[in-house]
């Protein structure tokens, strides 16, 4: 589904990603871990097409199509979804209206007509029930006055409504207490199918107790330096990253 080859990227002329190689297949969950400043959020942003990041080298192939030249909204219409670490507030735009617009813009890009109102309402009801969301929540302005947990749950609700092929969760666990973490993780797990994939970016192994990855990758200084199964996350939790740095020096 996603194939990244020798990806280099910079922000304000500072090189952050220095040759990332990664493959994700349908039905898989991949986790990327690494210390602060290693390039995790930059990788998420570059895949999603955020314009302040410059891709200087390499390829991003999504469903056999090179998407490096596509704008962020074009990538979203093809089935890429990025859940932000710090979701923005949009006063005056309700959660429901935001979702209607997002879904219908994607349908328009695919040559389809707007989703009929009754179908939209049915979908909103089904997905909010799936995520145990209070219906009053849907009439509130997007993220305005939301707690950290509410913002993250709203991101997962957007993911449920849009049904992306690849969801990138950028430190979805930051700022969440254990109850909110369980709710968000449960939502992600309910939305997993054999046809979609998830890339989880996290500092902490605790999230991976709830969203169990097939593969864990360690990002250090702009490169993926080690990959393994979920047991790699436990080792990182216990021992930190120094042992990997020592391994790298020995090479």
UniProtKB/TrEMBL annotation:
Keyword Nucleotide-binding (UniProt)? yes
Q: From which residue to which does the signal peptide run? A: none
Q: Which domain of life is it from?
A: Bacteria
Per UniProt, which keywords does this protein have?
Answer: ATP-binding, Nucleotide-binding
Which Gene3D superfamilies did the record assign? P-loop containing nucleotide triphosphate hydrolases
* A molecular function GO annotation: ATP binding
Kindly give the CDD domains that the UniProt entry links to this protein: ABC_FeS_Assembly
Q: What is this protein called?
A: ABC transporter ATP-binding protein
Species assigned in the record:
Mesonia mobilis
Gene name of the record: sufC
């Amino acid at each position: 589904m996603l194939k990244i080859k020798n990806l280099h990227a910079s922000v304000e002329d500072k090189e952050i990603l220095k040759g990332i190689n990664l493959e994700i297949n349908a039905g898989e969950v991949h986790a990327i871990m690494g210390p602060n400043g290693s390039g995790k959020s930059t990788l998420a942003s570059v895949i999603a097409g955020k314009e302040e990041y410059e891709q200087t080298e390499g390829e991003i192939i999504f469903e056999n199509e090179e998407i490096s030249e596509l704008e962020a909204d074009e990538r979203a219409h093809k089935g890429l979804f990025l859940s932000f670490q710090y979701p923005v507030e949009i006063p005056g735009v309700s959660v429901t209206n935001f979702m209607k617009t997002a879904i219908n813009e994607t349908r328009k890009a695919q040559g389809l007509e707007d989703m009929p109102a009754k179908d939209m309402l049915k979908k909103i009801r089904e997905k909010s029930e799936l995520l145990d969301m209070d219906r009053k929540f849907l009439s509130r302005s997007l993220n305005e006055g939301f707690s950290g947990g509410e913002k993250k749950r709203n991101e997962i609700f957007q993911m449920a409504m849009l049904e992306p092929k690849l969801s990138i969760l950028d430190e979805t666990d930051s700022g969440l207490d254990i109850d909110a973490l369980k709710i968000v993780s449960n939502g992600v797990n309910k939305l997993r199918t054999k046809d979609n994939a998830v890339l989880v970016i996290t500092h902490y192994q605790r999230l991976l107790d709830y969203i169990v990855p097939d593969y864990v990758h360690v990002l250090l200084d702009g490169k993926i330096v080690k990959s393994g199964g979920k047991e790699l996350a436990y080792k990182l939790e216990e021992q930190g990253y120094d042992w990997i740095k020592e391994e790298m020096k020995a090479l």
